[in-house]
Specification:
This protein has 204 residues and is an all-alpha fold. It folds into 2 domains: 1-150, no CATH class; 156-204, no CATH class. 23% of the residues lie in helices and 3% in strands. The relative contact order is 0.12. Pfam families: Sulfatase.
Length: 204
Amino acid sequence: MYLAYDAPHAALQIPTQEYPKGGGINGGLQWTGQSSTTPSINTASGTRDSYIHPGYVNKDWSEGDKRHASMIRRLYNAAGDIIQLLKYLDIDEETLIIFTSDNGPHHKVGSGGQFAQNPELFQSYANLNGIKRDIWEGGIRIPTICRYRVIIPESSIVTYPSGQWDWLATFADVAKAAIPVYTDGVSLMPFLTQQSDNKINDKR
């Protein structure tokens, strides 16, 4: 499954309410009927663009930074909700999760330009330089988290240089399918499972 979240993003629009308690089948985000007081989804109520996470309300941050942090917290809750669902369905150890992004941090300006988010506050590009749309490392290098219980050793680090085009080959490898000839990507599984060192090989 490909799941593309649009938060955090430039409009800096925040939720109407806190993330529903719990997760998985019986908690967290839930679909509802059309006749429900919250049509289609259980968070379809409240005041639009209003919820700052309580942990950030009293921080000495700008409005934009509080919004940015609240959006990241929302994403954290949503990812945890999905992992809880995988556990309920008893497929957690059979599921490879890839959490990544398409670019580095952005100097975000909210709707109407009334607030902005400072990418330096949370050290969003670490010790690099550059933001989204830059070709400096901070604009194009992004962190990636891979979770595959039992298969990928916990706390392992892969420094092998890779790109988004490598995921097709990686997923084909996991599915034990032939890697399509039209891609120049390589499977990252030997590196993720620590069966290969992090050096560039002849395949690249």
